[in-house]
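Record type: monomer structure entry
Structure origin: computed from sequence
Chain ID: A
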Amino acid sequence: ILVPDRDGHLADVALGYKDFRSYFGDPALCGKSIGRVAGCIAYGTMRIDGEEYRLDINGMAGHLNGGVKGFAGRLWESRVETNRVVMSLSSDDGDQGYPGNLQVEAAFDFDEDNALEITYIARTDRTTPVNMACNLLLNLGGEGSGSVLDHELRLDASTVLEADDRLIPTGKLLGVAGTPADFRSLRRLGEGVDSDFDRIRMLRGYDHFFPVDGWRQNILTEVGELRDARSGRRVEILSSQPGVTLYTGNRLGGGCPETKSGGRYRDYEGVAVVCQGYPDAVNRPEFPSPLLAPDGFYCQKTVYRFGTFR
């Protein structure tokens, strides 16, 4: 993603790798489309229409980001349509334990106003959970330029979802006012990364889900804004998803392959504001439902609108 700084100098602000083969099996899931379900499904079990399903177990919380062979590690079909790239994937009934044959498309549009629009659509022949998300890791100073802890973030979120020691959601929403999770106005990412609040220190930074205030189903809503004072770059984030996961690159130094710029990422050299549905929502009726029925149509959109400030 090549965008100008306040002086007009272009830089790639998306983290990634020099060799395309490095994207297979990378622990950071850098820039990848996650599915069928982003986030966790507790203990790898779920019940749909009275039937229990056991999913692939690949994380402390149970089933994480679609399983060992989730969508992020697969080759997708692709085509170019004028100024957009469309990727498509088929997931068979029983894939990683999920019911139903699922057809997925991911469309990436970049317009002349420096806005990247990511749209996920899906159809199924049997009721199944779907929660697609793009794990776009950004450094507004430019990929490979160092830590993002001086970036400032604003999130339209007055609560954060509590998790237990296994990082499974408890269902409780914690008010962020006066806590290190309060990003309702622009605030440095580095200010709270060593806090004990809601296991931030244990996670070595932020890896938390924030419900978006004022979310309405199928409506594109402003989520927040990320800024870098050194370069003057900013990005406004809009989404139709009910929440975001904030990840401050806490473990990027744990084995990422050779980067686009020929080095190795260290911890905190990228930040992701991942727009997605609630984790473990299939097991929690109080959360917005992730279930897609055969007569339904899944469509979720996220927009990253890049610009500058003085």
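Annotation 1: The CA atoms of residues 37 and 76 lie 17 Å apart.
Annotation 2: The two ends are 21 Å apart (CA to CA).
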